[in-house]
Amino acid sequence: MIDKIDQLLKQVEAATPVTEEEIEQFRIEYLGRKGILKALAGEFKEVPGEQKRDVGQALNALKQKVTAKVEELKAGAQRNALASGPALDLTRPHGGIPLGARHPISVVRREIIEIFNRIGFTVAEGPEVEDDWHVFSGLNFPPEHPARDMQDTFFVEGDNDLLLRTHTSSVQVREMNKRRPPIRIVMPGRVFRNEAVSARSHCAFHQIEGLYIDKEVSFADLKQTLLYFAREFFGKAKIRLRPSYFPFTEPSAEMDVYWGLETETDYRITKGTGWLEVLGCGMVDPNVLQSSDIDPAVYSGFAFGMGIERIAMLRYQIGDLRMFFENDVRFLDQFGPVS
Ligand code: DAH
Asked: For atom 12 of ligand 1, which residue has the closest CA?
């Protein structure tokens, strides 16, 4: 019988059940009510007395071996199940949570601010609901100027003085009242005009304003600053300044960037000239400095203002301004994940 038990021990050692079912079968085969060990216990009764001790020990050893093997196999199977079971594998890397994209207006605004930051301009902001003084009078708009008309400006109902700012130039006035020169700031913000919504205009849009006031600031400084901006932002090395008119600057100009005429789109967006109008600018009118108690005999300055949508349309070749306000994720997703 000892030989038989030895034989069984070897069989147990060699057995390789893998799945939980196979392991259970193996257990039943040896340890079940009608299993091999039960049968051996029956045979044990027939063993002559002097052999009982040895055979009994061998039987116990076999039983222990089988029990230990079953435990070990079960633990292994459980580990395998954990490793492959999708719900339970806490170590498995997942596909990542989709991030939103920054709005193209924000992307362009950040980039413009960052360009001016590099040459010492800091950011200032002002309110969207403003009074007449900051939007018009303090900026040297004559009382009869058409921009003050109801057709262009949204007024707050029941209040003759309160309105939605039509440009970020109002922040210039606020800052000139608050600080003393040198002043070197960029002022991003949302502005409002009473205009019909179309592919080219909207009743709400964004601007960035710039202001630099110090002793001996000249038109050459303005030109050099704008050339630096055009190079950094557009990568274009050629600009031109066309004479223009704004009540708050004298002289005033509009800046064009030489865009080129290489593609059909270039022809379309530059109307066949190769030049693109990018911003308005000028030397701060002495009247404006005076209104803010800055002595124009001591200080001079320049200002500029640009529409962010317009610049974003150029940068991304977007043909319809309304895209910026519809928040269609198919449009927004194209501007890359948040960085
Ligand atoms: N405020 C002007 C507008 O909305 C833009 C502008 C022109 C701003 C000339 C300026 C400037 O600061 O100097 O059309």
From this structure: 304
Instruction: Name the residue among 300, 308, 305 with its Cα closest to residue 176.
Output: 300
Domain residue limits, the chain: 2-83, 104-335
The protein residue with its alpha carbon nearest to ligand 1, atom 6, reads 305
Nearest atom of ligand 1 to the alpha carbon of 284 = 13
Q: What is the pTM of this model?
A: 0.72
d(CA 252, CA 281): 6
Query: What number does the ligand 1 atom closest to the CA of 207 have?
Result: 4
Cis peptide before 48 (omega within 30 of 0): no
**Three-state secondary-structure class, residue 273:** coil
- Atom 3 in ligand 1: which residue has the minimum CA distance? 167
Residues 31-38: contacts with CB within 8 Å, 24+ apart?
Answer: 31/63, 31/66, 31/67, 31/70, 36/8, 37/62, 37/63, 37/66
- How many Å apart are CA 227 and CA 243, to the nearest integer? 16
Residue 169 CA to ligand 1 center (angstroms) comes to 6
Number of H helices, E strands in the chain: 13, 9
Best of 136, 304, 311 for a ligand 1 pocket test (most atoms within 8 Å of beta carbon): 304
Q: pLDDT tens across 51-108, in order?
A: 888 888 988 989 999 899 889 888 888 887 767 666 667 787 877 777 788 999 999 9
Rg from Cα positions in the chain? 41
Residue 206 contacts residue 309 (beta carbons within 8 Å):
yes
Task: Walk along the chain (339 residues) in steps of 10 and give the mean pLDDT of each run.
Answer: 88 87 90 89 88 88 90 84 69 78 93 98 98 94 80 87 95 96 98 91 95 98 97 91 96 94 83 91 97 96 96 87 91 78
Ligand 1 atom closest to the CA of 168, numbered from 1: 1
> Looking at domain 104-335, which of 3.30.930.10, 3.40.50.300, 3.40.30.10, 3.40.630.30 is its CATH number?
3.30.930.10
